[in-house]
Design brief:
Elements lengths: L1 E9 L5 E10 L4 E5 L6 H8 L7 E6 L2 E2 L8 H5 L2 E5 L10 H10 L5 H14 L15 H13 L5 E5 L7 H16 L3 E5 L3 H6 L3 E6 L2 E6 L9
Parallel strand pairs: 3-8, 3-9, 6-7, 7-8
Antiparallel strand pairs: 1-2, 1-4, 4-5, 9-10
Bound molecules: adenosine-5'-diphosphate (ADP) (2 copies).
One adenosine-5'-diphosphate (ADP) binds next to α1.
Subunit structure: Homodimer. Forms a membrane-associated complex with FtsX.
Main location: membrane
Subcellular location: Cell membrane
């Protein structure tokens, strides 16, 4: 599903964020990415959703060698990858419904299908009754649910979640995890960077720890492994 071979990433200012990453993440896995701030977690995620490009090495997602992809093909790869952020990144002037529908419009989905599928994912995240609310009218947890609905609306093979519970209180965070587990159960691979020790140590899954740009630990049903 996701394969990295000797991936290196050096930013324009000379900062080396990843050095020699080798990893295989299979279809339907749920993987936590842990490690100190500045370790390279976000960079690792950005390479998967093609926000950044590797300086060296091979990366493939769902069979596409995305290091080499032509620019015009990017939207079609992104369609296979849903992204969730700590700060939700919803479009503030669009309603919950429109934020989700927009992700289908950009890949030219027929209008009838957009309506049906948008309502379906709103229902899945428990927010059908908030379809017409603007992001500012929703709680943090509800905004994250809209973001999750937007991430899954095109049926991606992979969800990349960068600190999805980072701005949420514990109870709301468990609700979000419940939803991500349900999405994973339905067949979507999930890669989630997190600092949430309690979640990692309770909902046991594969744990990949990154420190100073390298993978230092990779455990099935692993633990968080840091103090906080
Ligand atoms: P993490 O997500 O684990 O906190 P990042 O991947 O964000 O780590 O950062 C890894 C390293 O790369 C850090 O030293 C960070 O300062 C640096 N970095 C991240 N993004 C950029 C950028 N756009 N330009 C230069 N350096 C960056
Ligand atoms: P909260 O902590 O925000 O109350 P809950 O987990 O109790 O979150 O769920 C709130 C709404 O989200 C419910 O209406 C429910 O339909 C929906 N929901 C929660 N978990 C799932 C799930 N795993 N699959 C589908 N819908 C879910």
């Amino acid at each position: 599903m996701i394969e990295m071979q000797d991936i290196w990433k050096t930013y324009a200012d000379g900062t080396t964020a990843l050095q020699g990453i080798n990893v295989v993440i299979d279809r339907n896995e749920f993987v936590y990415i842990v490690g100190p701030s500045g370790a390279g977690k976000s960079t690792f995620m950005k390479l998967i959703y093609r926000e950044e490009f590797p300086t060296k090495g091979q990366i493939s997602v769902n069979g596409f060698n995305i290091g080499k992809l032509k620019h015009r093909k990017i939207p079609y790869v992104r369609r296979n990858i849903g992204v969730i952020f700590q700060d939700y990144k919803l479009l503030p002037k669009l309603s919950a419904y429109e934020n989700i529908a927009f992700a289908m419009e950009v890949i030219e989905t027929p209008r009838r299908l957009i309506r049906r599928r948008t309502m379906e994912v709103l229902e899945l995240v428990g927010l059908k009754h908030k379809a017409n609310s603007l992001p500012a009218q929703l709680s943090g947890g509800e905004q994250q649910r809209v973001a999750i609905a937007r991430a899954i609306v095109n049926n991606p093979a992979v969800i990349v979640a960068d600190e999805p519970t980072g701005n949420l209180d514990p109870e709301t965070s468990w609700g979000i995890m419940n939803l991500l587990e349900e999405i994973n159960f339905r067949g979507t691979t999930i890669v989630m960077a997190t600092h949430n020790k309690e979640i990692v140590n309770t909902l046991r899954k594969r744990v990949i720890a990154i420190e100073r740009g390298s993978i230092v630990r990779d455990q099935l049903r692993g633990d968080y492994g840091y103090e906080s």
